[in-house]
Predict the 3D structure of the following.
Amino acid sequence: MVTKEKKMPSEDLAYAGILKLIYERKFSPGDFLQEEYLSHILGMSRTPINRALSKMNIEGLLERKKKKGCFIPVVTLRDGRKLFTLRAMIEGQVAWEAAQSCTSPLMDRLCEINRQDQKALKDRDDGRYYMANRDFHFLLAESANNRYLERVSKQLFHQASIYIFFYDSFYTSTKKSAIYTPEQHEVILQCIKDRNADAARVAMEEHIIHTMKMFGSVD
Amino acid sequence: MVTKEKKMPSEDLAYAGILKLIYERKFSPGDFLQEEYLSHILGMSRTPINRALSKMNIEGLLERKKKKGCFIPVVTLRDGRKLFTLRAMIEGQVAWEAAQSCTSPLMDRLCEINRQDQKALKDRDDGRYYMANRDFHFLLAESANNRYLERVSKQLFHQASIYIFFYDSFYTSTKKSAIYTPEQHEVILQCIKDRNADAARVAMEEHIIHTMKMFGSVD
DNA sequence: CCATGCATATATGCATACATAAAAGAATGG
DNA sequence: CCATTCTTTTATGTATGCATATATGCATGG
């Protein structure tokens, strides 16, 4: 056979599937995610669904009440500002450390991802744009060569997605917040390429705060 | 009946039980934690054990290999320094925010915990000392009134425990690193009481770095 | 004697049945 | 007519049996 499709574990499929449902806006803040329903939709038993939901809960993507189930978090703009302020701090540190330890092949991949980002934005393909943006922040987190910082950075990104998916779309346009993203990413990459760690930190902090202001300015 | 024991969910009992086994040093770095063995020891089925292990894995307390199981992480001093540097940053921020939002009743509880801390240290009761120390950092994390910062702070504390439990005992004495802890906690509390956020941050950063240096100075 | 392939053992991944707790609704008493 | 309590409903929590992937050891061939 030509295709070398490795059979993915059901738990991972469940995680990806539920995440997909969330960012296709099949649920709203406060909505209840029933295990049986999800297991029916995704074509598997409750076990991997439950484990995926647990993971999302611990990562902060979902609220969970004992013996009740999982819910899409109802978040306030005030909380959102706290999250993005923390993200600015953490991802600023990521950029700072990446500027010191990032290798050339990683830089190339980051540039490539940023090109895809730009292309998806041009094509107005929201799904691909989200993926490329996520890939950029995740690969940068990995480039910092610090397992603890990487984990925290990825988790905060996931949590921020809740705001991007819901809040942002209610008050402003996603496109508005995205339109300057690729060029800001470009600036960050240039600082890292120059091994200017302090500048990389500042550029990243500004990028995160800019993203926050897109939905944080409405209350 | 006098005691109002609410029946704890098995998953929580499993989590607490496994954590207890870890900090009673029943396992060493690299050791394999077999689900069936744990379910036998803790007197429950594999299901809650598996869920507790998943939680610990996501929190970074355990390594997990697909279709293999969970292991006590094998960590290096180099990684340890990265972790404690990050903790200094995060808990410094916790202290800073707590200094602005901490209420009087919380302050009283923090002082009370610190007294227990001191007492446990005097009695050379390692278990109670660990619990009191954990309670101090956790309650402070809650005092910051920032759900995201709280989550990150608690997770990093858990991960740091791995170093405290294993590394520290191999090279130095636990008592040595603990002996100045209550008075450092006292300084932090005083800064918070004075609403001096910047001083609270510095005091906390120094406290974390001090803890790190107890085992970070041997390589 | 070493390398490669296969068989077997073992522990996790998954599916399913049942137990249990929380919430909603009905019935009864004030 | 409202409040309280009991019943019923419903979805999660837990236990268990089977499927499956990984690793180990043995056998066989070069």
About this structure: The CA atoms of residues 176 and 214 of chain B lie 7 Å apart. Residues 34-36, 46, 50, 66-69 of chain B lie near DNA strand C (CB under 10 Å from a C1').
